[in-house]
Write a structure and sequence with these properties.
This protein is mainly α. The protein is built from 15 helices and 4 strands. The longest helix is centred in the first third of the chain and has 17 residues.
Length: 387
């Protein structure tokens, strides 16, 4: 239970008391009152690390929040989220043990993985069959590291960092050049190519990791970046956007293009449910891009904790001089970043049945790290309880 202090009322000497006090006594009493006020003031946590979390649990079945039929408009990707932020309640200040200021331990993450996979009737492969992984898994032989890059989890920045650590890239790329890391620069490191030279014995001796993200914020990020009408988005997946508008509005492709129509978030959500996100890897469940359950990762990073945990990965592969570039968002607190704020607003505007269906499509992704629902005060953080 999180405790808030609404304030402390300190009363002085009552007027009807006939008591004579020395200046020294009065000074001591005033000092004592100030100490009490200081100790009982509202607690606030200020930190640059996006790692604040509470131990409250949330149910997806009973906390979907208020539903509105209003479809919000799409602001520019780089515009300030002040308008949305002003309508959100401040994240709950932490009143628990210091351990909750930090990311969940890998021990908890591995147990949560086992639980989620067990619910599907699956378990980790005892022999990590890395050679069976798909095209989103890479092996960097010089630094002996395996990475599975799931779209919309910061994988572009991670691949660039690994290429620099490997020595394949000697300079930092400009934002407009970042897409190059998915082409010729990294293709030779994809598992489908590396398994021609190396085998699972080699791969099992490598350090392995992947990054996961709250499905709600990933869903919003995919829409804004690939399908929306924002000035800086939508170009490379425009054909998918055209198909969504055709399907949902029953108009021809020519009309969509001529009138420059883009899918709304509600149409995008309905499309995800209809095709279960299977049309493109940027929108499909994250578990499909991983090698689960055929392998066991040495480290799993929740995207919300990339700051502190990313540095740990780079130290493990002796690449501490290499940095993982951050997001475009100005806030270091994931609860206040634009994807989280838009997710709260847009998902709350959907019909409850559609939200439930969306959750069903991405249920395993939620369970892998026990991710919070968009109505939870600490959304989008994983909810964990380590005593």
């Amino acid at each position: 239970m999180i405790t808030r202090y609404s304030g402390v009322r300190v009363t002085g000497i009552m007027a009807d008391q006939d008591v004579s006090l020395s200046k020294k006594t009065i000074a001591l009493m005033v000092l004592s009152c100030l100490v009490i006020v200081f100790l009982l003031r509202p607690s606030r946590h200020v930190s640059d690390a996006p790692s604040i979390i509470t131990i409250e649990e949330s149910s997806f079945n009973d906390s979907l929040g208020p539903i509105s039929e209003t479809q919000p408009s799409v602001p520019s990707r780089y515009e300030s989220a002040t308008e949305i932020s002003s309508n959100q309640s401040e994240p709950s200040p932490l009143q628990h043990k210091d351990m909750y200021l930090f990311p969940p331990s890998q021990e908890w993450i591995q147990k949560q993985f086992q639980k989620a996979l067990s619910d599907l009737g699956l378990e980790y492969s005892p022999d990590s069959l890395w050679s069976s992984c798909g095209p989103k898994t890479y092996y960097f032989q010089k630094i002996n590291t395996i990475f599975t890059g799931i779209p919309k989890t910061g994988c572009t920045h991670w691949i660039e960092s690994l290429l620099r650590a490997e020595g394949d890239l000697t300079r930092e790329l400009a934002p407009s050049q970042m897409k190059k890391v998915h082409g010729g620069m990294s293709n030779r490191h994809r598992m489908r190519s590396m398994k021609r030279t190396y085998n699972d014995t080699t791969f099992r001796n490598a350090f392995s990791f992947t990054v996961l993200r709250n499905p709600w914020t990933r869903m919003v990020s995919g829409y804004r970046d690939k399908l929306s009408d924002e000035d800086s988005a939508g170009a490379d997946k425009r054909s998918i956007g055209v198909n969504i508008v055709q399907l949902m509005r029953h108009v021809s492709a020519s009309v969509v293009k001529e009138e420059k129509l883009y899918p709304t978030f509600a149409e995008y959500a309905a499309w995800l449910v209809k095709y279960k996100g299977a049309v493109n890897v940027h929108f499909s469940p994250q578990i499909k891009a991983t090698c689960l359950p055929r392998v066991k990762y040495d480290m799993v990073i929740p995207l919300e904790y990339t700051g502190p945990m990313g540095g740990e990965v780079l130290r493990k592969i002796n690449a501490s001089k290499t940095s993982v570039l951050g997001s475009y968002d100005k806030s270091s607190d994931p609860r206040l970043q634009s994807s989280a704020l838009y997710a709260k607003k847009w998902l709350s505007a959907l019909e409850p049945d559609l939200v439930e269906q969306l959750y069903s499509v991405f249920k395993t992704d939620f369970e892998l790290l026990n991710y919070s629902n968009f109505s939870h005060p600490d959304f989008p953080l994983p909810l964990y309880n380590e005593i």
